[in-house]
Design goal:
alpha/beta, Beta-carbonic Anhydrase, Chain A, 5-stranded mixed sheet, globular
Length: 265
């Protein structure tokens, strides 16, 4: 359906005016039991082999053995161990944080494979915010991730249906719900903002239902993520196929993806 330019501009103006009042950045701090891999030592320009990680970061020593075999994964190479898939994401985020991205640009050969189907090794539920791009902050390429995005990164019916397809049909065995700092949807849902366009107001209302006990935006961000994690963990398709569901928060300022629970290794 074509929408006249004037209508689009009018709706956009209402949205911008409604959300413009929030200029404060909110940093989500991980709870004490959060697993975080850490500190930079000496950074090469890129990471090409597993040994390069020793020159850049210290990864958790509990990562599944052999996870690095998939560093240069072809789009149709299957990863059916969710722990290996999670390790791939953790390592990718380390590369992103330290600006040492792998030379993983999608090649002509990759495009030829992707033209025949898709085999994502992980599924991501995250926000529609333009600053939040899983393929970038996890340093992956086309065909690696099945991504579902909406305002507030919550598991609504459309998101759940999409993830059921990813798990049951595409074979993804890992789902990560990723919230983020400075999320306008969470800020306004938690703050009870009113007077927005109907669909947007309804979206904020549904998010607010997931964070009834949050005392501040930091807590609301984590609570929103974990509410969706619990919804997905209880899903029959997810259970039937043994998919792992975890929650995390992406810090826009640092680039770090902080997992809310202990890693399941």
């Amino acid at each position: 359906m074509n929408i006249k330019k004037s209508v689009v501009l009018a709706v956009a103006s209402v949205f911008v005016l409604a959300l413009a009042g929030c200029g404060v950045s909110h940093t989500v701090h991980a709870p004490d039991n959060t697993v975080q891999s850490m500190a930079a030592i000496e950074m090469p320009s890129i990471i090409e082999t597993p040994d390069d990680y020793e020159d850049i970061v210290t990864l958790p020593d509990v990562l599944p053995e052999g996870w690095y075999e998939f560093l240069h994964r072809a789009p149709d190479e299957i990863i059916d161990d969710p722990n290996v898939a999670l390790a791939m994401l953790i390592a990718g985020n380390e590369r992103f944080v330290y600006d040492a991205l792998m030379p993983r640009n999608t090649t002509l050969a990759d495009r030829d494979i992707n033209a025949t189907g898709q085999w994502p090794f992980a599924s991501i539920v995250t926000c529609a915010d333009s600053r939040v791009a899983p393929e970038l902050y996890f340093d992956q390429k086309v065909g690696d991730l099945f991504v579902v995005r909406n305002a507030g990164n919550f598991a609504d019916e459309t998101a759940i249906g999409s993830l059921e397809f990813s798990v049951a049909v595409l074979g993804s065995r890992l789902i990560v719900v990723v919230g983020h700092t400075d999320c306008g949807a969470i800020i306004h849902a938690h703050g009870g903002t009113t007077g927005l366009p109907t669909a947007l107001q309804n979206t904020l209302g549904r998010i607010a239902e997931l964070i009834p006990y949050a005392t501040d935006v930091e807590e609301a961000t984590r609570e929103g993520v974990m509410s969706s994690v619990e919804i997905l963990r209880a899903n029959e398709v997810v259970i039937e196929h043994g998919a792992l569901v975890v929650g995390a928060v992406f810090d826009i300022e640092t680039g770090r993806v902080i997992f809310i629970e202990d890693l399941p290794y």
